[in-house]
Amino acid sequence: MLDNLTGRLSRVIKTIRGEARLTETNVQEALREVRLALLEADVALPVVREFVARVKEKALGQDVVGSLTPGQALVGVVHEELTALMGGPSATLDLAVAPPAVILVAGLQGSGKTTTTGKLAKLLLDGYRKKPLLVSCDVYRPAAIEQLATLAAQVGADFFPSSTAEKPLAIVLAALDHAKRHYHDVLLVDTAGRLAIDEQMMSEIAELHDALKPVETLFIVDSMQGQDAVNVARAFSEALPLTGIVLTKLDGDARGGAALSVRQVTGKPVKFAGVGEKLNGLEVFHPERMASRILGMGDVLSLVEEARKSVDVDEARKLAEKVKRGKGFDLEDFKQQIAQMRKMGGLSALVDKLPAQLAQAAQSSQVDEGRMRRLEGIINSMTPQERARPELMKASRKRRVAAGAGVTVQEVNRLLTQFEQMQKMMKHMQKGGLQKMMRSMRGMMPGVR
Amino acid sequence: MLRLFKNSEPGDKPGWFDRLKGGLAKTRTQLGGLFAARRIDESLFEELETALLSADAGVAATEHLITELRKRARKNRLENAEQLKSELHELMVEILSPLEVSIDCGAHRPLIIMVAGVNGAGKTTSIGKLTHLYQRQGHTVLLAAGDTFRAAAREQLAEWGKQNGVTVVSQQSGDPAAVIFDAIQAARARNIGIVLADTAGRLPTQMHLMEEVRKIKRVIRKADEHAPHHVWLVIDANTGQNAVNQVCAFDEAIGLTGIILTKLDGTAKGGVVAAIALARSNQASAQADRGTRQSKDAPVQPIPIAYVGLGEGLDDLRPFVAREFVSALLD
Question: What is the CATH number of domain A101-297?
Answer without folding.
Answer: 3.40.50.300
